[in-house]
Specification:
Its cofactor is Zn(2+). By secondary structure, this protein is of the alpha/beta class. It is built from 11 helices and 18 strands. Strands 3, 5, 6, 9, 10, 17 and 18 form a 7-stranded mixed beta sheet that branches.
C-alpha cells in the first residue's frame, strides 16, 4: 500500500492532527486521486464537535479536486492524468433510490459511508499499523483519496483545479436546493438565512436562476457585504432588524422561497415565517443531533406552505451542470472562496471556522503544484 499524509480526527472535540496513513488502491468502479484541494465545510465541524455521529478515528474532508492517478476495473469515463472534481454524495447507482434518479438519498452511501465510514465493499481504504481509519465521504483531508467512480467528474481546462474543489459540496448543495428542490423561477422572490459557504452559493445560484429579489439574512455585516457581491439585492442583519417585518416592508408580503442554510430550530422557524402564501421553505442546513422544528402548524395548513428538505443533489446531473456554470464564468469561485490555507494549516482552518472567522468558503490547497 502507498502512504499518504493526512489529518486524522482521533476523537470528538480534539483538533485534527497530521499522520502518515496507508492508502489501498482503488477497487472495482473506484478512482484513486491525488488531492489538489479540499474545502472546509461546517458539516465536518459538526463531526469534530460530535454534533453529528461518525466513527473515529476518521479522516474528514468531502469537497475535493485533484488528478486521477489510478482507476479500478469498470471505470471508463476518467483516466490517469485527468483533472477532476468530486461530489460529496457518492451514489452507488444500484440501490432503490439511485435507480429512480434519487442519487442524493442513496441508501448505500448513507448506510456504508455516513453510518460506518466505509466504501461500498464494507471496508475503508485508509489504515495505520493495521487499524482501519473511517472515511467521511472520500476522506479528502489527505494527499490521496479513493472515490467511487460515480462521484468523479472531469474538469475542462478553463476551470481552475484548486477552486473546483468547492463545486463538490458548497455549489453542489446550493444547486440542489435552488434548482432540484425549490425550482426557483425567473421573477420569484427569495430569502436566504445564513450567508456562509452554502448560503452564499444559494444566493449566487438563485440570481443565476433569475430570481428578481434575493434577500440575505445574517448576523455578520461582513458576510452580508459579500452576499451583495454575489448577487443579493437586499440584506438584513437579524441582530438589528426583525427579518419577517423587514421582508414585508420591502415586498409588501413574504417571499416565494426561503432557504435555511444554517441548521437550527430558530432559523428553520424563521424560514417559515418569511413565506408568502403558497411559499416554499427549503431546509439545506445540517443541524446538530436532536434539534427539532417548532412551527405554527395552522399557519402551514391555512397558507398552503411547503417545507422541503434538500441534501445535495443527484450527482450525475448536478455536477456536470455546476461544472458548466463554472466553465462559462457564471459562478464566481474566487469570491466564494474567501480563505485559503496550506495543507499544514488544516486543523487551524477548522478552528477559524468554529470561531466564525471564515466569511465564505475556506479552501485547503493540499498540493497547489498540481494546478
Amino acid at each position: 500500500m502507498p502512504e499518504s499524509a493526512a489529518f486524522v480526527l482521533e476523537s470528538a472535540h480534539e483538533p485534527l492532527h497530521p499522520e502518515t496513513l496507508s492508502v489501498a488502491g482503488p477497487g472495482e468502479e473506484e478512482v484513486l486521486i491525488e488531492v489538489a484541494a479540499c474545502g472546509v465545510c461546517h458539516t465536518d465541524l459538526h463531526v469534530i464537535k460530535d454534533e453529528v455521529a461518525f466513527p473515529k478515528p476518521a479522516v474528514l474532508g468531502h469537497e475535493v479536486s485533484g488528478i486521477v492517478r489510478q482507476v479500478g476495473t469498470g471505470v471508463t469515463h476518467v483516466a490517469p492524468g485527468d483533472r477532476v472534481a468530486c461530489s460529496f454524495i457518492m451514489p452507488c447507482g444500484r440501490c432503490r433510490h439511485c435507480v429512480q434518479g434519487l442519487e442524493d438519498i442513496c441508501e448505500t452511501f448513507f448506510n456504508f459511508n455516513r453510518l460506518s465510514g466505509q466504501l461500498y465493499d464494507g471496508t475503508t481504504r485508509l489504515s495505520r499499523g493495521g487499524e482501519n481509519i473511517a472515511m467521511y465521504s472520500m476522506a479528502g483531508h489527505a494527499q490521496h483519496c479513493v472515490v467511487p467512480a460515480r462521484a468523479v467528474f472531469a474538469l475542462p481546462q478553463n476551470v481552475n483545479l484548486l477552486d473546483a474543489a468547492v463545486l463538490g459540496c458548497s455549489l453542489f448543495t446550493g444547486y440542489g436546493a435552488v434548482r432540484a428542490v425549490a425550482d426557483v423561477q425567473p421573477g420569484e422572490t427569495v430569502a436566504v438565512i445564513a450567508a456562509g459557504g452554502v448560503g452564499l452559493s444559494i444566493i449566487h445560484l438563485a440570481r443565476a436562476a433569475g430570481a428578481e429579489r434575493v434577500i440575505a439574512i445574517d448576523i455578520d455585516d461582513e458576510k452580508l457585504a459579500l452576499a451583495r457581491e454575489l448577487g443579493a439585492t437586499d440584506v438584513i442583519n437579524s441582530l438589528e432588524t426583525a427579518p419577517a417585518e423587514a421582508v414585508v416592508g420591502m415586498l409588501g408580503h413574504g417571499v416565494d422561497v426561503a432557504f435555511e442554510a444554517l441548521g437550527s430550530s430558530a432559523t428553520v422557524r424563521l424560514a417559515v415565517e418569511l413565506l408568502d402564501d403558497g411559499g416554499r421553505a427549503v431546509l439545506a442546513g445540517i443541524a446538530p443531533a436532536g434539534h427539532t422544528m417548532d412551527i405554527d402548524i395552522t399557519k402551514v395548513v391555512r397558507r398552503k406552505l411547503r417545507i422541503l428538505g434538500s441534501f445535495g443533489a443527484p450527482a450525475s446531473t448536478a455536477m456536470p451542470e455546476v461544472i458548466r456554470l463554472a466553465g462559462e464564468g457564471l459562478i464566481d469561485l474566487q469570491k466564494l472562496i474567501t480563505h485559503r490555507f496550506a495543507f499544514e494549516q488544516t486543523a487551524e482552518a477548522y478552528q477559524l471556522l468554529n470561531e466564525r472567522k471564515i466569511l465564505g468558503r475556506g479552501l485547503i490547497e493540499t498540493n497547489p503544484a498540481l494546478a
